[in-house]
């Protein structure tokens, strides 16, 4: 059962999560609760310093909250030791970052296959090439990141996620380093992970167009969840942001 909704198990949940770093004037996250239903895309928005990336890191098991609970399905991440968290991230979580996080000495093919190898799986060539084909890069699978544009590198990162088949994908400003047109392509690919694969995407973004692709958006201010918007479109997100940021 969901701790927040009382219905089915969600893909991920934060329950009254707080986090303070040494030297910070106050909590970076303050009693934050969020529910991320399975098979949906959620945008997390807010001004710089509002705690968005910290929230994402806590939800993905990259950082530990001081108080509260973080759940992936019915697994309580706050009860896991570091070894269990590492295994969980390898097998059940995918990441798409603003700076792509590809290994420069590996080809696109090898970068896509790497998470599978780290998880102790033996990637099939057809599966790796199929993931690259899905993002339109099968024909350049032998190129290294330095030989790819920023948009191509981000599509390799998404192919890496597709091949691994995680339960939840965490995306931190996935369009932040891209031009408008390329960013739209990347958001469409993330949306396809939900609509085609039944996956769950949790995305930090400043971009109203990216947020409009989500099923729901949350807004953070000073580490607090202050509002949420269901079924966003560009006009509603823009008006929503204007209301909070002015």
Describe the structure.
The chain contains eight helices and ten strands. The strands form two sheets. Strands 6-7-8-3-9-10 form a six-stranded mixed β-sheet, with helices on both faces. It has a single domain (12-245), classed as P-loop containing nucleotide triphosphate hydrolases (Rossmann fold, 3-Layer(aba) Sandwich). It has 246 residues and is of the alpha/beta class.
Short description:
With 246 residues, the chain is an alpha/beta fold. The protein has helices at 52-59, 82-92, 108-118, 125-134, 150-164, 180-195, 208-212, 234-245, and strands at residues 12-19, 29-36, 41-45, 67-72, 75-76, 93-97, 168-172, 200-204, 216-221, 224-230.
């Amino acid at each position: 059962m969901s701790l927040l909704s009382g219905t089915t198990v969600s893909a991920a949940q934060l329950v009254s999560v707080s986090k303070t770093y040494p030297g910070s004037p106050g909590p970076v996250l303050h009693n934050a609760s969020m529910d991320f239903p399975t098979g949906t895309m959620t945008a997390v928005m807010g001004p710089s310093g509002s705690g968005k990336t910290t929230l994402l890191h806590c939800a993905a098991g990259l950082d530990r909250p001081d108080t509260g609970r973080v759940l992936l399905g019915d697994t309580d991440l706050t009860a896991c030791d570091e070894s269990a968290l590492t295994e969980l991230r390898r097998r059940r979580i995918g990441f798409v970052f603003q700076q792509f996080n590809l290994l420069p000495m590996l080809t696109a093919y090898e970068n896509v296959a790497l998470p599978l190898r780290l998880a102790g799986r033996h990637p099939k060539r057809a599966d790796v090439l199929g993931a690259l084909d899905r993002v339109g890069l099968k024909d350049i699978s032998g190129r290294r990141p330095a030989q790819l544009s920023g948009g191509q590198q981000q599509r390799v990162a998404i192919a890496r996620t597709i091949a691994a088949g995680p339960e939840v994908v965490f995306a931190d400003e996935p369009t932040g380093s891209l031009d408008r047109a390329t960013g739209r392509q990347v958001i469409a690919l993330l949306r396809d992970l939900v609509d085609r694969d039944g996956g769950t995407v949790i995305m930090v973004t400043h971009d109203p167009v990216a947020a409009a692709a989500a099923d729901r958006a949350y807004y953070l201010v000073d580490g607090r969840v202050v509002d949420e918007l269901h079924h966003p479109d560009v006009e509603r997100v823009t008006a929503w942001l204007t209301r909070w940021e002015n």
